[in-house]
Amino acid sequence: MNLLISLHSMKKKVVIGLSGGVDSSVAAWILKEQGYDVTGLFMKNWHDNTGLLEGDCSAEDDIMFASMVADRLGIPFHTVDLSEPYRSRVVDYMFGEYQAGRTPNPDVLCNREIKFDSFVEEAHKLGAALVATGHFCRKETVFEGKREINRLLAGTDNKKDQSYFLCQVTQQQLAGAVFPVGEMTKAEVREKAEELGLPTASRKDSQGICFIGKVDLPTFLQQKLEKRTGRTICIPADYKQEHNEEGVPEPAVNTISLEKLCAPYYFNPSSGPTIGKHNGAHFFTVGQRKGINIGGYKDPLFVLSTDTEKNIIYVGEGQGHPCLHRKGLFIKNEELHWIRPDLVMKEGEVRDYDLRIRYRQPLQKARLFKRSSGLFIIFHTLQRGITPGQFAAWYSGDELLGSGVINA
């Protein structure tokens, strides 16, 4: 099998996104072992350290480690500055979503708009037909007649599977993508890096916003979003709305409409007492605990909802608060994306899939209902912290089929 791969890949040029981390380092070694003509390319996507937490890895350190890996493996190494498209297509989108009271996922956008778009263009300039990354996911190409179909599969290591971050890629983007470490576990990657003497072998994984790092989010957002003093209102634990009660059929929809099942909780200033102030509702997200800064309660307070127009955040006591849990969500037609266009749901169609609404969440059983307005998703069990602006991704087995931005 390795011989066949090697013969197939011989002389094919591939550009690997060397990030200065261990995963892309081992991925580069695998590609070289398989006979590819490998070139390392480092992306510099951000120059502003506003809000960056002290001690976080700098881009300069990342470049140094990436260069050292390339030297160790004996492959060419280049850098490219993609900060302009990153700012306009990822960061500006992120600011806009927070301003509107939604919580975006910049990592998903970064993969769609930068790693598998702008970066690919740079790879083509270097003469490469293929682009590789250190993502823990897999790709399988199958044929239906003469039609080529690229399947995005979860990584072998369930604890490190990163397919969710690629939930917005297209068939065309997948066609030119290679994921060398997708069949490995994280432990195996570390072990191989140690064995090879790679300088990244014991380096910590990056955290925080893609290519920016771990930031103090309010400080970062204050670059464009102004502070606005507003009220914090506490919703009592016995506050319930009929459509989200435990007694909802699972997952059948009978007398209760899809709209009701998927509707978020709506509060108004009279729903509970004002217990404090905050610096701007757009700095908070559903399910958030840190930053509320109000004491005197037996259990921690969590954000249940935000109203950026009235500049109010609604909070509740305890992570078991009923208003933190919902039965369903809704995605507008214009924000639906299918990695498998051949499997797009038709209006009136109903299917059962496994879903996740955030990275590392275990897959959840759900039923999908396609209607003229969009896609309604009803979960078998109540879900905590369904957040507008985040991505819901659906799987069939270990294949990721599609995704969409949660509208409500």
Short summary of the structure?
24% of the residues lie in helices and 27% in strands. By secondary structure, it is of the alpha/beta class. The chain has 2 domains: 2-220, Rossmann fold (3-Layer(aba) Sandwich), CATH 3.40.50.620; 226-408, Translation factors (Elongation Factor Tu (Ef-tu), domain 3, Beta Barrel), CATH 2.40.30.
Topology of this protein?
Elements: H1 2-9, E1 13-17, H2 22-33, E2 37-44, H3 59-73, E3 77-81, H4 83-99, H5 106-125, E4 130-132, E5 137-144, E6 147-154, H6 171-175, E7 177-178, H7 186-196, H8 217-221, E8 230-234, H9 258-262, E9 274-278, E10 301-307, E11 312-317, E12 325-332, E13 336-338, E14 350-356, E15 364-371, E16 374-384, E17 391-396, E18 399-405
Parallel strand pairs: 1-2, 1-4, 2-3, 4-7, 8-11
Antiparallel strand pairs: 5-6, 6-18, 8-9, 10-11, 12-16, 13-18, 14-15, 14-17, 15-16, 17-18
Helix pairs in contact: 2-3, 2-7, 4-5
Describe, in plain words, how this protein is organized in 3D:
This protein is α/β, with parallel strands linked by helices and 408 residues long. The protein has 2 domains: 2-220, HUPs (Rossmann fold), CATH 3.40.50.620; 226-408, Translation factors (Elongation Factor Tu (Ef-tu), domain 3, Beta Barrel). 24% of the residues lie in helices and 27% in strands. The protein contains 9 helices and 18 strands. Strands 5, 6, 12, 13, 14, 15, 16, 17 and 18 form a 9-stranded antiparallel sheet that branches. The chain has a 5-stranded parallel sheet with strand order 3-2-1-4-7, with helices on both faces. Strands 9-8-11-10 form a 4-stranded mixed sheet, with no helix packed on it. A hairpin with a 2-residue loop joins strand 5 and strand 6. The chain is globular. 42% of the residues are buried. Mean pLDDT is 89; it is low at 1-10 and 242-252.
